Amino acid sequence: MTKQPGSSAAAESDQPVPVADETAAEPGPADAAGSDLPADGTGTGPADGTGTGPADGTGTGPADGTGTGPALAPGAPALALLALGWLAAMLWSTREVIHSAAAGLTAISLSAFALPGVISAALVAGAAFALFGVDLLARRGSDRVTLRFVAAIGTGLLVALAAAFAINLTYADNATTSVIAGTTAAAATIGGAVAGARTAPVVGAVVAAALGTLIFVVAFSRARDPLFDLFGAGDSQESLLTAAKWVSRTESLLAGLVAGLLAFGYLTWARRRAARLDATAPAPRWPAYLLAGAGPGLLLLLTEVIIRIGGRSLLDLAGALSEADAVAQTSLGTSRVDNGIWVLFVGALTAMIAFGRTLGPARADDEDEDEPGEVGTAR
Questions:
Q1: Contacts of 1 (CB under 8 A, 6+ apart)
Q2: Is residue 276 part of a domain?
Q3: H-helix or E-strand containing 196?
Q4: From its phi and psi, is residue 103 left (phi > 0), alpha (psi between -120 and 50) or beta?
Q5: Containing domain of residue 294, as a range?
Q6: What is the pTM of this model?
Q7: Which of 19, 20, 124, 129 is most deeply packed, by most CB within 10 A?
Q8: pLDDT digit string (tens) for 74-105?
Q9: Is the pLDDT of residue 142 over 80?
């Protein structure tokens, strides 16, 4: 029996038969590989915080602070202890030198000679201890710029008060004690402010390199007498001045090399440590190495500025003792400025050369790793 048009049977046969959506039942890439969304759908990573976002979805790194959060300075506690120990050693050494001298004019002259070592040690100690403080603050998740800077200055001020108290308590009560105490406290506070910079690994590299440079300069003093003989120091004043100039340049050159190598080594250590914690952490670029290598020289020049402002009265007292003392103070000030400039440029150049030597092998490794992927894509 044929179905006539217009009948109910014909109408039923003309309607399309619904077909099940096979594509909806097929698992997609996300279903096959597992969903990247957390259970509550509030973030871009899994609920355990190991993906590209923390469990609460409020940051760009994991919840434990080891992701792409603020970079931390490795070894900050050790740097703080070493810098504080070096400051204590310099304060004790200066006290022994002043107390061993006859009271009066000789004590003033020796205080002026010892002031640069104390101020540079206080500057580095303030920066190192403040770096440790802001590092603890960053680990607790508080890394706002204003809070970090205030915490750095406050931590440096603690070192300043402790150093000033120790000087006033143990040094002889004379005109030079208050000048040394006040200038040392100012240097420690300024050092704390330097540590408030957000680039903690670079600050750590500067502190480590500066501390190593200061220790090297003190150790180098044992080699000055043999070098004087090597550079032809004789009985004439001209030969002594020429030898002293070459000894000073040799010391500055070697100190710059030490500063640049230490800065490069610290930043390399910080980069590798950050890569172990988070493979996506950005590596320091060449400006970081340049600044870290130049940092110790900048701190030495900053030390000279602090001495000429805060310790001006002590330097004037020492220079007024005699014409020879005035010439000596002027010569020493010029020598310190030249030394800071040499350390700045040699340190920056050394760090840059050391960093540049790492670029060639790294680029070759990247090309070797890319070749298998390109061949596989062609297939």
A1: none
A2: yes
A3: none
A4: beta
A5: 76-358
A6: 0.73
A7: 124
A8: 888 999 999 999 999 999 988 887 777 555 55
A9: no
